[in-house]
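Q: Here's a chain of 138 amino acids. Please give me its 3D structure as tokens.
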Amino acid sequence: MEKHNFGVKPVTCHSLSGDGNGMAMSLNDNDVKIYKKAGNKWSETDTLGEHGQNVTGIDWAPKSNRIVTCGADRNAYVWTYQEGKWKPHLVILRINRAATCVKWSPEENKFAVGSSARLISVSYYEDEHTWWVSKHIK
């Protein structure tokens, strides 16, 4: 069993990469820290900082290597790794309460966001407009 120290702040959400050598973690704030494993140590490589309030959910897609995050600011972001940097794509969820959890579909072409508004927002990418579109399930 391995033991690692990431500080004293509480971990509110995290997700591992498909190969298990990367981790996205939020330490009870509006940033997502990206860690890479080298040997038996984790080192911070990046900070994803687009959310305006606490990040409440993270999911890292194992095949496409995309990260989706959601937060108390009622937004979600899809992060793609391009040219050595994580690039954000804002997803308008159209919810009036905080987003609380997020999960990619098995095909990684859609994701679902749960919210405290008692509805689920299912988002998919629309090529024609090059943005993420959300539909609601009550």
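Q: Can you summarize the key feature?
A: The radius of gyration is 15 Å.
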